[in-house]
Amino acid sequence: MSRVGRPRRFKAGIRVTSFYIPIESEEIIEKMKKLAQMDGISLSEKILEAMTEYVGTHFPGNPTLPLQVFTGEAPMPLRLQAKFDQQELQRLLPTLEKKQGEPSFRKEISDKCKMLTIKLARVNMRLKQDDITKLVDKAVQILEEK
Fold it and tell me: Which residues contact 5 (CB under 8 A, 6 or more apart)?
């Protein structure tokens, strides 16, 4: 007897988790549902996407940096600068991918992406991080299609 239900998108299975949402936050949930529908994914997948982005930005927490970094008297640690550049490139690539905006704006975004890609590729020769390698490869592919 075959089982009817939703198609399985997750090979390892799923974990059901509950959380409470205050009534005053209902509008944000409705907007998230609409975004998920526009992307053709479930609300759960959209929430997981947002959580992944948040954790990628904030984990493992705020680094303790000497004040001289903020006054410009000391350089930003390489790993932290790479993280900032990585986030900036991830933010800009969808604009190039979708070919949005005026030609001059796209050129400006393209130039910024090229600069960040080169910078990250050089830094990653020392850091050797898989996530940076994947992002650089993706950026090169998008830039070559342009």
Answer: none
